[in-house]
């Protein structure tokens, strides 16, 4: 990442995770600036990461080469309006991690600037994220590489040629952790209903989920083959999967992802 300075507008969980991930990969804390209206949060960040902190968004924008917009979508417009003059003058790379905020939105608020829009997911908080990225016109190869390295500090990154593809990314990986959490929650409830203690049920389900994910990640075959391998004809797994199939499990997943994408498109609009 050369010696460019990297700034964050907003010092919430995702910004903290990105800063921590970059520092873990060798980026000196002195190259990172973070702003936030909460002094308590800034003091916590400074103690945790040893980065520069300030309550002044403009101070960060005036100093850095890369500016990560890490505020909530509903306040993004107001945050950007204050920065517009500095952004138009200095032309830092803008990286937005706000869901539903489009490149057109950002240009309306900031003026012309090199913009990369990202859709990370919450496992990025533990450096296990999956992030979709889209580079708008005017982003150089070096800037694109920089954005990939920043988001890559907290997990895997995937570049997309069209911005609208981020709606599908939102539906699959952005919202995806909640789908798995719902399955875990349901399995824990089912285990308790079968007589297992709550604490034991939780540990069994979470370890099974983690193990299944690790097996799928490290295996040379796909989840379909792994499922077949664990499903003996006429066995217990087959009985359970039969209930899922009869209830239209696959169709429900398709419908859920389609609903999430539709909502993402509505929010972006």
Give structural notes.
The longest helix has 21 residues, at 198-218. The chain folds into 2 domains: 6-167, Rossmann fold; 176-268, ProC C-terminal domain-like fold (Orthogonal Bundle), CATH 1.10.3730.10. It has helices at residues 13-24, 39-49, 57-63, 73-90, 103-110, 141-152, 165-174, 176-193, 198-218, 223-230, 236-246, 249-268; strands at residues 6-9, 32-35, 52-54, 66-69, 93-96, 115-119, 129-135, 155-159. The chain starts with 5 loop residues before the first strand and ends with a helix. 58% of the residues lie in helices and 13% in strands. The chain is an alpha/beta fold and 269 residues long. It contains 12 helices and 8 strands. Helix 3 (57-63) crosses helix 4 (73-90), helix 4 packs across helix 5 and helix 7 (165-174) packs across helix 12. 31% of the residues are buried. Helix 6 (141-152) links the parallel strand 7 (129-135) and strand 8 (155-159). The model has no long low-confidence stretch (mean pLDDT 95). Pathway: Amino-acid biosynthesis; L-proline biosynthesis; L-proline from L-glutamate 5-semialdehyde: step 1/1. NADPH binds at residue 57. It is found in: Cytoplasm. NADP(+) binds at residues 9-14, 70-73. This is Pyrroline-5-carboxylate reductase.
Fold topology:
Layout: E1 6-9, H1 13-24, E2 32-35, H2 39-49, E3 52-54, H3 57-63, E4 66-69, H4 73-90, E5 93-96, H5 103-110, E6 115-119, E7 129-135, H6 141-152, E8 155-159, H7 165-174, H8 176-193, H9 198-218, H10 223-230, H11 236-246, H12 249-268
Parallel strand pairs: 1-2, 1-4, 2-3, 4-5, 5-6, 7-8
Antiparallel strand pairs: 6-7
Helix pairs in contact: 3-4, 4-5, 7-12, 8-9
């Amino acid at each position: 990442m050369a010696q460019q300075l990297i700034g964050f507008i907003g010092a919430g969980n995702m910004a903290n995770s990105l800063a921590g991930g970059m520092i873990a990969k060798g980026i000196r804390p002195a190259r990172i600036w973070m702003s936030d209206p909460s002094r308590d949060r800034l003091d916590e960040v400074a103690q945790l990461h040893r980065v520069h902190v300030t309550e002044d968004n403009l101070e960060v924008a005036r100093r850095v080469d890369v500016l990560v917009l890490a505020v909530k979508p509903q306040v993004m417009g107001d945050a950007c309006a204050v920065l517009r003059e500095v952004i138009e003058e200095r032309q830092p790379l803008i990286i937005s991690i706000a869901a539903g905020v489009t490149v057109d939105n950002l240009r309306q608020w900031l003026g012309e600037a090199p913009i990369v829009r990202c859709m990370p997911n919450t496992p990025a908080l533990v450096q296990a994220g999956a992030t979709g990225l889209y580079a708008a016109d005017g982003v150089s190869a070096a800037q694109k590489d920089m954005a990939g390295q920043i988001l890559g500090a907290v997990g895997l990154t995937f570049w997309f040629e069209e911005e609208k593809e981020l709606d599908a990314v939102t539906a699959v990986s952005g919202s995806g952790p909640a789908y798995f959490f719902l399955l875990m929650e349901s399995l824990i409830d089912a285990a308790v209903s079968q007589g297992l203690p709550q604490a034991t049920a939780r540990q069994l389900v979470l370890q099974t989920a983690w193990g299944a994910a690790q097996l799928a990640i490290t295996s040379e075959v796909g989840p379909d083959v792994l499922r077949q391998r664990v499903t003996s004809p006429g066995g217990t797994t087959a009985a359970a999967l039969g209930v899922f199939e009869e209830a239209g499990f696959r169709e429900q997943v398709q419908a859920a992802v389609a609903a999430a994408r539709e909502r993402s498109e509505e929010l972006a609009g």
